Amino acid sequence: MVRILCAVAIVTIIGLAAFGAITLYDETMQVGRMWETPAIRPHEEPLPVMAGGSVPYSDGEIFLRTADPDTLKPAFGLDDAQTIAQGKLNYRYFCIHCHGPNYDGYGTVGQSFAPKPGDLRSARVQTLPIGRLFHEISYGIPNGRQPALATTIAIDDRWRIIAYIKTLGVRP
């Protein structure tokens, strides 16, 4: 019986020592175990006042989203060779995974979809107004496989991708 009591006392002393060491570490060391950080308590600091002119009132994503898609136009020309080259680069970065290197919807990701992503060289895509195409790329196609990419691709880069897609022509 004395042995059991001694063992319990030793385990209790070791446990209390470990608890005390951890508490001392948390309270005295600069790098604790992330019990309290400024990132966890943002409500304790006042919110900064927004600078004037920081919310767009004549341009920006909300105006593109609410505009008539058939009348949307980019702020620059889409027939420039540099614009088209940048559009090709952006296509390879953002779109090739689903639409594929042949623009037919058989990319590494797209080939597993049912239905597969649209053929970018189809008559439907090639005859769409550029604003409508911008709208579909930016905000998705309802009940379709095209995800909304407005938060992923910058506005000008979306227009450049459209410039490149429009140079592909209709698949024979």
Count of discrete structural domains: 2
Compute the number of strand runs: 0
**Main sheet: strands, sense, barrel:** none
Strand content: under 5%
> What class would the helix/strand composition place it in?
mainly alpha
Low-pLDDT regions: none
Task: Calculate the terminal CA-CA distance, rounded to whole Å.
Answer: 93 Å
Main CATH class of the largest domain: Mainly Alpha
Helices and strands, in order, run as HHHHHHH
> CATH topology of the largest domain, what is it called?
Cytochrome Bc1 Complex, Chain D, domain 2
Q: Say which CATH homologous superfamily of the largest domain is assigned.
A: Cytochrome c-like domain
Architecture per CATH nomenclature, i.e. the level-2 architecture of the largest domain? Orthogonal Bundle
Topology:
Elements: H1 2-28, H2 61-66, H3 81-94, H4 96-99, H5 123-127, H6 130-139, H7 155-168
Helix pairs in contact: 3-7, 6-7
How would you describe the overall organization of this protein?
The protein has 172 residues and is an all-alpha fold. It has 2 domains: 2-44; 61-168, Cytochrome c-like domain (Cytochrome Bc1 Complex, Chain D, domain 2), CATH 1.10.760. Helix content is 47%, strand content 0%. The protein has 7 helices and no strands. Helix 3 (81-94) packs across helix 7 (155-168) and helix 6 packs across helix 7.
How would you briefly describe this protein structure?
The protein is an all-alpha fold.
What descriptors fit this protein?
mainly alpha, 172 residues, elongated, Cytochrome Bc1 Complex, Chain D, domain 2
